[in-house]
Amino acid sequence: MEFHLSDDAWAAFQSSLYERDERLERRIDGASYKPDERVDVWVLSAHAEAIFSQDIDPEVWETLADLDMEAETEEDAWRLIRSFYLERGNMLVSIGDGVGEDREEWIFSEGLGTRLGLPDFAN
Which partner from 41, 79, 115, 117 sits 20 to 30 angstroms from 12, CA to CA? Predict the structure, then answer.
């Protein structure tokens, strides 16, 4: 599954989450949350399967090595990683305009993405 989120939708998705005991959940209207349960991109990145981002060290080469694959370029490596995860039913999320240095793509397991309502934020 592939989804596209605008920058605003991505920010709204993140703000709809909280993390407690290392588990991500959707916020419930009217409930209170501790400040340390806030989710930013660093917290969220710990729950992603793979990331291609200019803002967060995506560790593309480490992810590729974990999959026992090799590539010549970072772009080829990311293409292999995307294919690997998408073939196994994971969700690819493209954020913003998705071109050049602003390219932002995250891969989440289908179970996590669905449980957090990620498709609800897609364009």
Answer: 79
Residue-wise pLDDT tens digits, 44-98: 999 999 999 877 876 899 999 999 999 999 999 999 999 999 999 999 999 987 6
Neighbours of 25 (CB within 10 A): 16
- Residue linked to tokens 């292999």: 80
Sign of the CA dihedral 53, 59, 60, 66?
negative
Q: What is the DSSP letter of 38?
A: B
Sign (positive/negative) of CA torsion 69, 70, 73, 74? positive
Q: Which helix (H) or strand (E) holds 3?
A: strand 2-5
User: Of 83, 73, 72, whose CA–CA distance to 105 is shortest?
Assistant: 83
For residue 29, pLDDT over 90 is answered with no
Q: Are 106 and 51 in contact (CB under 8 A)?
A: yes
